[in-house]
UniProtKB/TrEMBL annotation:
CDD domains found in the cross-reference section: Radical_SAM (cd01335)
Complexes and interactors: Monomer.
Binding site for [4Fe-4S] cluster 1: C18, C54, C88
HAMAP family registered for this protein in UniProt: tRNA_metthiotr_MiaB (MF_01864)
Ranges in coiled-coil conformation: 359-386
Keywords: 4Fe-4S, Coiled coil, Cytoplasm, Iron, Iron-sulfur, Metal-binding, S-adenosyl-L-methionine, Transferase, tRNA processing
EC annotation from Swiss-Prot or TrEMBL: 2.8.4.3
Protein name: tRNA-2-methylthio-N(6)-dimethylallyladenosine synthase
Cofactor(s) the protein requires to work: [4Fe-4S] cluster
Keyword Iron: yes
Entry's cofactor comment: Binds 2 [4Fe-4S] clusters. One cluster is coordinated with 3 cysteines and an exchangeable S-adenosyl-L-methionine.
Top EC class of this enzyme: transferase
Length: 445
């Protein structure tokens, strides 16, 4: 008979939403590692399933309930299977999740997952555990130090959480709470540790990462200062950060783009709309013109920077003229890559109460905006053909002998080469551009 006492329990984690959830999922799996769990890639043989959820749009939230429905059979076959819901749906809907899906054993919000080990012990006793507090204590200080395993060449590192901006459409200030920055020394220590374990590129994460103001040396550090200090870490080759708010792009951060070689020439800077009337209604505290001026300054500091953004179409009261302003702003900026969404009504947010745009009108606008954004992306990628890029090799490709990595501009690049190049930055010449990636040939040194 198998020794069930020592056999590790299996944990299946499924992650939805933004990169911060990807980081949190890693930390939650590590926290449960201390309870004897190892990760598995399928829910079928799991002892615990943890969904790390996103509440940003209605579809994202509803997906969770259909996913939970799929686990009914597994739970019936294995009554010991534990099911947990973490992340922003957990925070926003709390007990409602349990009343809609009584088979859920555990609900944990994004600020309280350091308490997972105690919660796991509780559900093993057959009780239910629910924690959606915004605790006083810093969860990062309470999480155990990260395991020393070797890692892939890229990693996320959360430095700031929460948001005080309260855009009229957005749930994040409610699900993630107020803006908090991690102390700079802890961030630097975690970064050094990641590098020792094989990481060459770190993406600093925050809901408003450029609002970072982490405590250090009895004062506060800005994101620019943190980046300059990180750039001194030997073995760390690339630094990125996301997501930024236009109002927090200070002079020093703009200057850092021109001065810090390790800071990659890519910036995700959502603007949401090109209409000042709508921006005001969205509570964005910037105008289309101030955004365009900002882009000009960033491009002056780093002319080859590739810009990316987020857009919402069909925000309440958006007219054809407002939407035309958005198209015009996009034409002026020329984005390398963008995300665009139809406005989704989120309960509890100010915009939910306002008069909604007709769904077909919103769909039509989304199509038109996406056509323009795709055209810009294609043109910018096409212009890369024949150019030399530096590719951080991340993994083998689908075809034999093929490698996949990322260029400085975050383009996915496919090239042929030996897998021994994984983790290295190689020079390559772009030969072809396809929908979401580039093909290149390796250049010998
Ligand atoms: N903190 C980031 C983004 C958070 S959410 C920032 O401020 O840029 C990611 C994107 O989802 C947003 O930029 C926005 O474009 C989109 N989004 C947020 N709420 C939405 C809603 N209610 N409907 C549609 N899209 C939304
Ligand atoms: Fe949401 Fe606005 Fe905060 Fe971004 S800045 S997380 S869109 S409230
Ligand atoms: Fe979604 Fe929460 Fe991130 S709502 S986008 S998972 S902060």
């Amino acid at each position: 008979m198998a020794d069930t006492k020592t056999a590790p329990k299996k944990l299946f984690v499924k992650t939805y939403g933004c990169q911060m959830n990807v980081y949190d999922s890693e930390r939650m799996a590590e926290a449960l590692g201390g309870q004897g769990y190892v990760e598995t890639q399928t829910p079928d043989d799991a002892d615990m399933i943890l969904l790390n959820t996103c509440h940003i749009r209605e579809k994202a939230a509803e997906k969770i309930y259909s996913e939970l429905g799929r686990y009914k059979g597994l739970k019936a076959a294995n009554p010991d299977l534990k099911i947990g819901v973490a992340g922003c749906v957990a925070q926003a809907e709390g007990e409602e999740i349990v009343s809609r899906q009584p088979m859920v054993d555990l609900v944990v919000g994004p600020q309280s997952y350091h308490r997972l080990p105690e919660m796991e012990a509780k559900i093993r006793e057959g009780k239910r555990a629910l924690d959606t507090d915004f605790p006083e204590e810093d969860k990062f200080a309470h999480l155990k130090s990260r395991p020393k395993a070797k890692r892939g060449p890229t990693a996320f590192l959360t430095v700031q959480e929460g948001c005080d901006k309260f855009c009229a459409f957005c749930v994040v200030p409610y699900t993630r709470g107020a803006e908090v920055s991690r102390p700079a020394d802890r961030v630097l220590a975690e970064a050094r540790d990641l590098v020792e374990r094989g990481v060459a590129e770190i993406t600093l994460l925050g809901q408003n990462v450029n609002a970072y103001h982490g405590a250090a040396d009895g004062g506060e550090w800005s994101l620019a200062r943190l980046i300059r200090e990180l750039a001194k870490v030997d073995g760390l080759e690339r630094i990125r950060y996301t997501t930024s708010h236009p109002n927090d792009m200070d002079d020093d951060l703009i200057a850092a783009h021109g001065e810090v070689d390790k800071l990659m020439p890519y910036l995700h800077l959502p603007v949401q709309s090109g209409s000042d009337r709508i921006l005001k209604r969205m509570n964005r505290s910037h105008t289309a013109e101030s955004y365009l001026k900002l882009i000009e300054r960033i491009r002056a500091a780093r002319p080859d920077i590739l810009l990316s953004g987020d857009f919402i179409v069909g925000f309440p009261e958006e007219t054809d003229a407002d939407f035309d302003d958005t198209l015009e702003l996009v034409r002026q900026v020329r984005y390398g890559q963008c995300y665009s969404f139809k406005y989704s009504t989120r309960p509890g947010t100010p915009a939910a109460e306002r008069s909604q745009v007709d769904a077909d009108v919103a769909s039509d606008r989304l199509q038109r905006l996406q056509a323009l954004l795709n055209q810009q992306q294609t043109e910018i990628q096409q212009a890369m053909v024949g150019k030399e890029v530096q590719v951080l090799i991340e993994r083998p490709g689908r075809l034999d002998g093929q490698l996949v990595g990322k260029s400085q501009h975050l383009h996915a690049v496919h090239l042929d080469g030996p897998i021994s190049l994984k983790g290295q930055i190689v020079r390559a010449r772009v030969t072809e551009s396809s929908t979401n990636s580039l093909a290149a040939t390796l250049l010998e040194d």
